[in-house]
Amino acid sequence: VRLWWCRCWALLSRPAWRLRARRGLAAGPEMHFGFQTVTEEERREKIYQVFESVAKKYDVMNDSMTLGIHRVWKDILMHKMNPSPGTLLLDVAGGTGDIAFRFINYVRSVRERQLQRKLKHHQNLSWQEIFESYQKDKFNSLGDSQVVVCDINREMLKVGKQKAQHLGYSEGLSWVLGNAEELPFDNDKFDVYTIAFGIRNVTRIDLALQEAYRVLKPGGRFLCLEFSHVSNPLLSRLYDLYSFQVIPVLGEVIAGDWKSYQYLVESIRRFPPQEELKAMIEDVGFFKVDYENLNFGIVAIHSGFKL
Amino acid sequence: VRGQHFPPLRALQASAALRRASDEHKKEPLTSSSQHHFDPPPAGHQPEQEPQGPRPSYTGHGGQESEDYESEEQLQHRILTAALEFVPEHGWTAEAIAEGAKTLGLSVAAAGMFHSDGSELILHFVSECNAKLSELLEKEQKLVQLGEAEKKPMDEFLRQAVEARLRMLIPYIEKWPQALSVLLLPRNIPSSLNLLTSMIDDIWHYAGDQSTDFNWYTRRAVLTGIYNTTELVMMQDSSPDFEDTWRFLENRVADAMAMSNTASQVQSTGEAVVQGLMGAAVTVSNAETSWVLR
After folding, report:
1. Could you tell me if A112 lies within 8 Å of chain B, comparing CB atoms?
2. Which residue stretches of chain B are H helix?
3. Residues A102-141 pLDDT 10s
4. What function does the entry list (chain A) (predicted)?
5. How many domains does chain B have?
6. What is the model's pTM?
7. pLDDT band (50, 70, 90) for residue A9
8. Between chains, do A285 and B107 touch, taking CB under 8 Å as contact?
9. Do B94 and A221 touch (CB under 8 A)?
10. Are residues B242 and B144 part of one domain?
């Protein structure tokens, strides 16, 4: 315990921006891993290890770090998407399935409303016809909607599958191991592509965006929910304080893993701000690219269409 | 309203390819050698994503929809027009827009480009109806000018114009009350009011109104009132072919005509009264002066 307090004190007494950058080894383009500088390969490996170690406590940590507000953010994302039954969703870096489960719930309720409306219109059909249409619809509670959860990390997928089983989600859900920079899917397959709190961890964001463009159908939508930059100076100071002083401590206390959560807050600072990400999305070929700030820029939802 | 500016005239790759595929049997294939670009696309933009056919070529005239090129607005227009077909079933909702997008070969997610309450769809429909009305009135005016038809009396003209415009609502009449309520949302009021006033303006223009005085305002206010009330009556009219509505309309127009006569009568009466009062005042002042002088 004393060792832990020492580490705590050591970090608290150093302002975050004075953390030194360490030179990476060998060849390969230099990238950032939090505030460190590493090669591309190293970065991928380190990030894999980060998520491997946090996988089991991922949801708990999300709740404690964001005080449960991440649920609201994800709900807002779902409302923005407003999927209709029959939508095919690809959730990349969707590890523990938060977005996927919300999608299934949303589509289910929309489908129910649709069926109710249909029943109202069936007032003057024969009993036989009503029975037949009811049969057809009863076994289609999702209206042919499907969600594919793709993640690069086996541990995160494992946790996700367990959660699905535990919560009773079985229909319309698939789990695929894959890299966002090189998706194992054909062109023009999906209606919506989401990446929630994942694009920050992708090593080559431009490749991930290109892959997103590739696998989307014409008219398909790209949605990205990610931590972003707070422009309000006062709020920014408070946010920094909270991020660097509180979150790693929570990480150590709850998940026993200081370093991963240090990486988390550093990677947020290194991620491009709203306008830059918007430009990157436009460069890949998306149209009507727009972003919506949530909580003054702590989180932003970027949206684009493949037209 | 977003503070973004659209990158000028970037060709819409995916939807252009879809349209090309569907139009193939109608038009001859274009050669991509004749390319007058209105604005050169950003460098390096093209080579990266070219899974579909050759680069679209187009003549560089304005934002016109020439062979393969269309802007985002034009695509949105097409989606909304296609969506109108599904309104009787789904209402003025994002679902109808999604179905419309599907018929164009786009993903249902394209409905996300529009508001989820269907505002854009309704406004699009209203402006299309107004455009159709203008065309109709223009044609009629041409016929009158060519001497092939007789010029109608004012009340007849107004009645027919309003009826023609309201008849365009008939295919969507069941879901129109929903549309009206959406048009009254604070967000939509500027646009819907704009569309309404320009339509009324149009009708008066073709009716031959050339007033430049206060009459201009009264005329528009009166016709707007007639139109709105008739529309509401139409909502809950269940008579065959909306006979009751047209009778209501006829009565309102007759009222308006009578009122304008009354108005001019009132004006002359008013003038007469004023003159009388003036006369009385002069008499009284004369009486006073003469009394003082006595």
Report:
1. no
2. 13-23, 45-48, 72-84, 87-90, 94-103, 119-145, 154-167, 176-183, 189-207, 215-235, 243-293
3. 999 999 999 888 888 877 776 666 777 777 777 766 667 7
4. Methyltransferase required for the conversion of 2-decaprenyl-6-methoxy-1,4-benzoquinol (DDMQH2) to 2-decaprenyl-3-methyl-6-methoxy-1,4-benzoquinol (DMQH2).
5. 2
6. 0.77
7. low
8. no
9. no
10. yes
Separation CA B11–CA B71 (nearest Å) = 7
The CATH number of domain A68-110+146-228+271-306, selected from 3.40.630.30, 3.90.700.10, 3.40.50.150, 3.90.180.10: 3.40.50.150
Q: What is the mean pLDDT of residues A5-19?
A: 48
H or E stretch at A92: strand A88-92
- Mutation target for A interface from B106, B108, B175: give the one with most A CBs within 10 A: B108
Residues B89 and B179 in one domain: no
Q: Are residues B154 and B266 in the same domain?
A: yes
Q: What's the pLDDT score for residue B275?
A: 81
- Per-window interface: A 114-133 vs B, CB < 8 A: 114
Instruction: Verify whether the Cβ–Cβ distance B109 to A219 is below 8 Å.
Output: yes
Q: Which of A87, A216, A284 sits opposite B108 (nearest CB)?
A: A87
Q: Which residues of chain B have a CB within 8 Å of the CB of A86? A: 108
ipTM of the assembly? 0.78
With H, G, I as helix, E, B as strand and everything else as coil, classify residue A177: strand
In a domain, B123, yes or no: yes
CA–CA separation, B269 vs B258, rounded Å? 16
Nearest CA in chain B to A84: B95
- B75 — contact with chain A (CB < 8 Å)? yes
CA distance B7 to chain A (A): 9
Residues B143 and B189 in one domain: yes
Tokens of A56: 């089991």
Residues 6 or more apart whose CB falls under 8 angstroms from that of A147 comprise A88, A89, A90, A91, A99, A100, A103, A104, A172, A173, A174
Same domain, residue pair B108 and B143: no
CB atoms within 10 A of CB B222: 20
CA-based nearest residue in chain B for residue A187:
B51
Under DSSP, is residue A39 helix (H, G, I), strand (E, B) or coil?
A: strand
Residues of B in contact with A214 (CB under 8 A): 49, 51
Same domain, B97 and B150: no
DSSP string across B182-213: HHTSTTTHHHHHHHHHHHHHHHHHHHT----S
Same domain, yes or no: B123 and B268: yes
Could you say which of B116, B147, B178 is where a domain stops?
Answer: B116
Last residue of a domain, one of B116, B136, B151: B116
**Cα separation, A240 vs A235, whole angstroms:** 8
Q: A53-90 pLDDT, tens per residue?
A: 888 888 888 888 888 999 999 999 999 999 988 899 99
Task: Map tokens 């690219």 to a residue.
Answer: A289
Shared domain check, B166 and B86: no
Q: Which domain holds residue B104?
A: 72-116
In chain A, where the domains are located: 68-110+146-228+271-306
